[in-house]
């Protein structure tokens, strides 16, 4: 099946089969794909929680209008933006570049200064909004990779962010929730699995200049 066929087949799963779990290998492969998501500067100013604990998921479901995907999926992936985006976060990233690419840190000073300049120019709210955007790119990669691997997922932002932060202890970790995606396998009686895709026609969506 081509990638386009797989993207046609994927859908925002409304009803998961609670008895089916991803294998360790499937989960690891999916997380590897997400790890490879691009981000502005490559900074990856977010963390990603893999939530399995049933009691925590019960609480999260309550804070998400009772949406059953949260308790019935194999795992719930929670994308959470860093709230302290500063020189220290940039510095750690530059250390990582220097180590990974065997580059003397002094050669990265210009890049580091450019990043620090950009970050310091933003208000706290702008930093978090910027970070949320990066997290959504990671969500997009997860959805595409899941489709490619035959894993079902549901992107979700229908939840109370403050409650999610509290239930998951995100504030203490310097994080705040961006968006989530339960992952697993759809239930045989999920009617949404058969619905044709509704998308803007190409001539309306794309502008060729
Ligand atoms: C950022 C985002 C948030 C969404 N939030 C929810 C949600 O809270 N609950 C839900 O059932 N679907 C949610 N959806 C699914 C969309 O309704 C769905 O992707 C859209 O209708 C297109 O359908 P398809 O993904 O099945 O092709 C969300 C999708 C995105 C991308």
Summarize this entry quickly.
The chain is built from 9 helices and 4 strands, in the order H-H-E-H-H-E-H-H-H-E-H-E-H.
What does this structure look like?
With 209 residues, the protein is of the alpha+beta class. It folds into 2 domains: 3-85 and 123-205, 3-Layer(aba) Sandwich (NADH Oxidase), CATH 3.40.109.10; 86-121, no CATH class. 46% of the residues lie in helices and 12% in strands. The chain contains 9 helices and 4 strands. The protein has helices at 3-9, 24-35, 54-62, 69-72, 87-101, 109-121, 124-149, 161-167, 202-205, and strands at 46-51, 75-82, 152-153, 175-184. The protein has a 4-stranded antiparallel beta sheet with strand order 1-2-4-3, with helices on both faces. Helix 5 (87-101) runs antiparallel to helix 6. The radius of gyration is 19 Å and the shape is globular. The model has no long low-confidence stretch (mean pLDDT 98). Flavin mononucleotide binds next to loops.
Note the main sheet.
Answer: 4 strands, antiparallel
Discrete helix count: 9
Radius of gyration: 19 Å
CATH superfamily of the largest domain: NADH Oxidase
N- to C-terminal distance: 32 Å
């Amino acid at each position: 099946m081509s990638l386009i066929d797989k993207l046609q087949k994927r859908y925002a799963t409304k009803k998961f089969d609670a008895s089916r779990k991803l294998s360790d290998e499937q989960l690891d492969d999916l997380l590897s794909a997400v790890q490879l998501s691009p981000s502005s500067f490559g900074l990856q100013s977010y963390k990603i929680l893999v939530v399995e604990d049933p009691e925590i998921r019960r609480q999260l479901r309550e804070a998400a209008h009772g949406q059953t995907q949260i308790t019935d999926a194999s795992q719930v992936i929670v994308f959470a933006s860093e709230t302290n985006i500063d020189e220290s976060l940039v510095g750690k990233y530059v250390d990582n570049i220097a180590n990974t690419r065997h580059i003397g840190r002094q050669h990265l000073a210009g890049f580091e200064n450019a990043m620090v300049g950009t970050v310091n120019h933003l208000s706290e709210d702008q930093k978090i909004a910027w970070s949320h955007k990066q997290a959504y790119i990671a969500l997009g990669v997860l959805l595409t990779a899941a489709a490619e691997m035959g894993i079902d997922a549901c992107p979700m932002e229908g939840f109370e962010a403050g409650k999610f932060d509290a239930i998951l202890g995100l504030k203490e970790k310097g994080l705040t929730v961006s968006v989530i995606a339960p992952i697993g396998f759809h239930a045989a009686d999920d009617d949404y699995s058969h619905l044709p895709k509704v998308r803007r026609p190409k001539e309306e969506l794309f502008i060729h200049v």
